[in-house]
Amino acid sequence: MSRRDIVTAIPTSFHADGSLDIEGSRAIFRYVAQSGNEGAFVLGTTGEFPAIDEDEFRALVAAALEDLGGRMRVIVHVGRSSAFEAVRRVEIARELGAREFAALTPYYLASAEGAVESYFEAVSEAVGDGSLFVYVYPKRSGIEVSPALLARLAKLPNVIGAKISEMSLDDIAAYRSVVDDDFVLYTGADRDLVAAGEVGAQGVVSGVSSVLPKPFRALAAAADSGDSETIASAQAAVDDVVRIIGGDMPRMKAALRSMGVADGRSRMALVEPDDEALAEIDRVIAAYR
């Protein structure tokens, strides 16, 4: 049976004025803890990490470890534009008890492969006895990671896998061809839990599953059954949810508000869903909650 981890990328809740809603964030953590998913990805893209300061990072990591740690793996994202900042976030999270980490490549300014490798060497050293995922997201970071570079990063101490966002199945296959079988590859494409598995990924990091986890769990079970009709039906449900909510944090938070989980908004400059979108969000909640 193939491994199909579902790791939930969790949104951060903010008040309407942009201030951190720590209690709302904790309510989301507690909701996700009941999902049955294998892990939680905290303070990644879905968590609006570029807009989180150091004190907020500390508070959110502490809350996540308390509210999620007994129920699922907690992967803390520490990626920053510099190794200095990323290492500092590793140190804070380790002090709080975190042992699994992910780090986006450096971002915004162009960076050569050697500089990216040096960045991950520093982060890997800071992780110590923990484990580290390389987070590859060239459409947001501006930094490409070639298969050759990933193969080198995979040999660093503590680097156990990679999260790959908005890249093709062929890209995932290319990464799989240069790393060991036990090196974990997670796709960031919510709907590709099965498709990515067919080219060597061991799971998905899914923001949509923070809102409606059941369709994703049903798809994983269907894939394990091997029944083509069951898989097609489960995939259609996931596709429907992803089409409506997708990697859109304001829509995720609108859904969480509608379900009474947390009354949160986004801090970053994102477009709020209109009435038509809100109606569709309510439709998929009714259908798949």
From TrEMBL:
The active site is at Y135, K163. Keywords: Lyase. SMART domains: DHDPS. It comes from the Bacteria. Pfam families: DHDPS (PF00701). GO terms for molecular function: 4-hydroxy-tetrahydrodipicolinate synthase activity. Pyruvate binds at T46, V205. Signal peptide: none annotated. InterPro entries: Aldolase_TIM (IPR013785), DapA-like (IPR002220). The keyword Transcription does not apply. Belongs to the DapA family. This is Dihydrodipicolinate synthase family protein. It comes from Microbacterium hatanonis.
